[in-house]
Amino acid sequence: xxxxxxxxxxxxxxxxxxxxxxxxxxxxxxxxxxxxxxxxxxxxxxxxxxxxxxxxxxxxxxxxx
Length: 65
Hints:
The chain has 5 helices and 2 strands; from the N terminus they run E-H-H-H-H-H-E. With 65 residues, the protein is mainly alpha-helical. The model has no long low-confidence stretch (mean pLDDT 96). Pfam families: HTH_26. This is HTH cro/C1-type domain-containing protein.
């Protein structure tokens, strides 16, 4: 199982979903699904944008459990 740590990373930085959407241009429903861990896939471009925005590595955003 893959866990998405987007909610943890946003909480640590005191950011909201709307901040991510506004600053990255990623669709709100995509960010929302990642935040609530209800997505079944992620596009590489989306993953790259999130990692650049949060200044983190892929391993910090996604982890295998």
